[in-house]
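Before going further, learn to read the protein records used in this course. The integers have meaning only within a learned vocabulary of local backbone shapes. To see the layout at work, look at the sequence and tokens printed below.
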Amino acid sequence: MFPNERQDEILEAIWTASEKKEYSLEEIKKACVIDISDVDITALVDGGLLIKSGDKILFSMEGKAFAQGVIRRHRLAEVLVHSILKLKNAQMEEIACKVEHTLLPEIEQSICTLLGHPERAPDGSLIPLGACCGQKLRTVDTMVTSLSELKAGENAKVMYIRPSDHSQLHQLLSFGLSPGVILNVHQTSPAVCIKFENTELALDKETATNIFVLRTKT
């Protein structure tokens, strides 16, 4: 089972509660940014990610692995927006929440390496270790840049999106522009016009600035 964005939030809340040795649904609800229903929990249990033991909600091995990934991406995003973008706490949490859902696993390592393999988020929460942390990687093998920095004719792979709001993110996703998509920049002025798959899309400069890509040769 591959969790969706809603289930990611629930798994994150269960992880956060478990760090405080709390395993009840009541405590998990307090830690979650969305409303959780019994149907949500049942779906995750049926999907093999959770186990119910009395009044406790626990991770299965698979569920723990998924949740660890979600938590790692979220807390790395918090460090990124706090230390690099210099956003305040309220903005930091909001943007980090958006970034974690659009962050490709392959770029997670580069971000962690860029940040120096941080052990804790800005609030002091532990960041689960990744493979790059154990290898003590010191250089970033890929250079991610804003789509707005590309020139006409360049190709790139979408790595993550930092939307100004949820509606913008869902609109881009509805057009098929999501992490992993290979695009070509057709023109850069007055709008950034891109082509990908069977779609042509014109983006204003602000939107293009919030889309982060990796240049490719094809």
The first strand starts at residue 50 and ends at 53. The beta strands are 50-53, 56-59, 144-146, 155-161, 182-187, 192-196, 199-203, 211-216.
